[in-house]
Design brief:
The chain is of the alpha+beta class. It contains eleven helices and ten strands. α9 (about 205-215) crosses α10.
């Protein structure tokens, strides 16, 4: 082996690196070969087989795929010697391919969902169907909704979600933000961030929020309001979010425990209008 090349074994390649590359579209054998070539600078096929322990057919198949993707280059025909493109170029190629595939899939899935297609023996779901998101993908849904916002954003949420909304400060969207936080400087900070936008920004404490929700949801009978407030205070409002974008889509995360965080997404203008009208009554909380 040439002096500038390193001996490599399967154990030399970090498993978390391989997992990351597979998330970008490579299968495990392709990821290992690409990393091995980056470390070895260039290598004959027989050297890769010996180093990684793959079968000959599997190695050749992976090399062809990597070459088709532009991640490796054949630099010598006999014997066959391959070289990997530099990692910054390689990662850019993978990200571009991933993004292109995402957009193609999104377009095709959109066409499919609008086609009215059903499987035999099944009924088509109503347009007002709620979609459920778990804790792992709620933040992805928030970013998706904000990225596609055209006119307005209406938000009631705990301050843990603020990182997603500060990006709206320089937009021309109609913004209504009610944030509950125990940070006494939060309102001043948010109004400074959104000073260039005609945003309605209000910060309230959890207790103020609970009082307002109690009044919105209770029947005003003596002896009932206080137990409802006590029940609400037992909930975990740290995860709570109520987001409406363009009066056309809603994402609601109720105040459940950390282990049970779940979000509900709906596209139903009539239902959204009713909820928005109801929760607008929260604006005068601190007044």
């Amino acid at each position: 082996m040439e002096a500038d090349k390193r001996d490599i074994a399967m154990d030399d390649i970090p498993p978390d690196l391989i997992r990351t590359l597979t998330k970008l579209g490579l299968v495990e054998s392709e990821a290992r070969i690409y990393v091995a070539l980056l470390i070895m600078k260039n290598a004959e096929v027989r050297e890769l087989i010996a180093a990684l322990g793959f079968s000959k057919p599997s190695t050749y198949a992976s090399l062809r795929t990597l070459e088709d993707k532009g991640l490796i280059v054949l630099v010598n025909a006999k014997p066959m010697i391959y070289q990997a493109v530099p990692e910054d170029i390689g990662l850019e190629i993978l990200v571009d391919a991933y993004t292109k595939a995402k957009e193609e899939a999104k377009d095709r899935l959109s066409v499919l969902s609008k086609s009215g297609m059903t499987f035999p023996g099944t009924a088509r779901s109503p347009d007002s169907l709620w979609f459920v998101f778990n804790k792992k993908n709620i933040e992805y849904k928030i970013r998706d909704m904000l990225r596609n916002a055209k006119k307005s954003v209406f938000l009631i949420a705990s301050d843990q979600y603020i990182k997603h909304f500060t990006q709206l400060a320089d937009t021309i969207l109609d913004l209504e933000l009610i944030v509950f936080s125990e940070n006494p400087r939060m309102e001043k900070s948010l109004k400074k961030i959104f000073k260039s936008n005609q945003a309605t920004v209000q910060v309230v404490s959890t207790v103020e929020l609970v009082n307002a929700l109690s009044k919105l949801n209770s029947v005003y009978q003596e002896g009932f309001l206080q137990p409802l407030e006590e029940t609400l205070l037992m909930l975990n409002f740290g995860n709570t979010l109520f987001l409406i974008v363009d009066d056309a889509e809603i994402l609601s995360v109720p105040p459940l425990s950390n282990e049970s965080t779940i979000g509900f997404n709906l596209r139903d203008p009539r239902a959204i209008a009713n909820r928005k009208l109801k929760y607008r009554d929260l604006h005068p909380i601190s007044g």
